[in-house]
Amino acid sequence: MSMTVGTGRTWTAAELQALSRSYQAAAILNAAAELELFPALAGGAVTAAVLAERLACDLRGLVILLDALAALALLKKEGDRYALADGVAPALTGNGPDGLLAITQHHANCLRNWAHLARAVKTGHPPDRLPSVRGETGDRAAFIGGMDNLSGPVANRILEALQPLAFEHLLDIGGASGTWTIAFLSACPAATATLLDLPPVIPLARERLGGAGLLDRVRLVGANFMTDALPAGADFAWLSAIAHQNSRAQNRALFAKIQAALRPGGRLAIREVLMEPDRIRPVAGALFAVNMLVATEGGGTFTVDELREDLAAAGFGEFGVARRDEGMHGIVVARKVISDAVR
Fold this sequence. Notes:
The chain is of the alpha/beta class. It folds into 2 domains: about 1-100, Arc Repressor Mutant, subunit A (Orthogonal Bundle), CATH 1.10.10; about 150-340, Vaccinia Virus protein VP39 (Rossmann fold, 3-Layer(aba) Sandwich), CATH 3.40.50. About 45% of the residues lie in helices and about 20% in strands. Strands 8-7-6-9-10-14-13 form a 7-stranded mixed β-sheet, sandwiched between helices. The radius of gyration is 22 Å and the shape is globular. The N and C termini lie far apart (about 70 Å).
């Protein structure tokens, strides 16, 4: 039995079955990351009993998970001892330059939301959010760390699309732990910045910016950018992977606040998935819209024309696309319109 879909692909029954159970491997990997199993194996091979004590896990449950990880070749099993497979340690035992532990823990949180996709489609609302075994604080740290896992290694390369960069003061809205602030200030050594994010995030930003030696050039502001006033005086604003959390109406309101906070003629750059008019390209963007359906009340992914319209409605002009990307690294830019009264 086969079926033909709109793209012209013909599916086999076996392929459809494989697709329907493809969540299983992801669930196994994500659960191990959530339990911090990989760091617990960083010291070498151990038995399940020793690991169960380290992780405070049920022995039967842990043995089943360990064997599944070994079957997927994420672990090596010799006798009754388990060890990390080659290549796993750099990615999943910490958050170094090649680290992916935090983003994998965040994906575990996303997976819980995706399990309720049908209900979200029925109701239009995301499911109630349940914390992981690591708790709300751990989940927040995983999200913030995960964003750095994804952006840190590529930030300098992504910013090449905005060259030549020339600004005096950056406003990094929802700046998390400072990944992009660090990249921007490295590109503009004479500039300063204000990083704004929720109060619980600010200590994470202070730690990372301190490690980068940039605290003397950054003002840290704990606030909610949707409900609180934005600090005024920047000539350049950066909105990175924020717009997709909002509806278009919410974005227009946020863009208007940014416009009001910028100096006359100041610029705004937005990093986002940029959808084609048909909304099925890029594929990563269509799937990410699903992630927003199960995680937010009104979020989604937007086309270039939609962003242009919403920025214009908020008082921005000189719109342009600085970078196209198959994922989250598309960039659009706009400039605050200077009214005749202030020319």
